[in-house]
Design a protein that fits this description.
By secondary structure, the protein is of the alpha+beta class. It contains 3 helices and 4 strands; from the N terminus they run αβαβββα.
């Protein structure tokens, strides 16, 4: 995936990255193998800002609804970004 992205940043803090997606500083955020405390506050902020959070399965490349048990998260600032991600990386 990293070859297809224009810029990749590692913040070290999933909640900060989710807040950046909510504010429009980032278009998307993908984090694998994280815990609820790395996600929940940022997910609430992002969802209230109109963003989208999904669970990403790295083995099957499928997306499903985010739950409190989600370990692999994909967050997008809007539906167009999510659809672009799905068409580029999940086919």
């Amino acid at each position: 995936m990293s070859r297809k992205f224009k810029h990749i940043r590692a913040f070290g803090c999933g909640q900060l990255a989710l807040a950046y997606v909510a504010s429009g500083r980032l278009q998307a955020f993908l984090q694998l193998d994280s815990y609820i405390w790395d996600q929940v506050a940022g997910v609430v902020i992002l969802n209230n800002a109109g963003g989208i959070t999904q669970e990403f399965d790295p083995d099957t490349h499928e997306l499903s609804d985010w739950t409190y048990q989600t370990r692999n998260i994909l967050a997008c600032s809007n539906k167009l970004i999510l659809e672009a991600f799905k068409s580029e990386f999940l086919n």
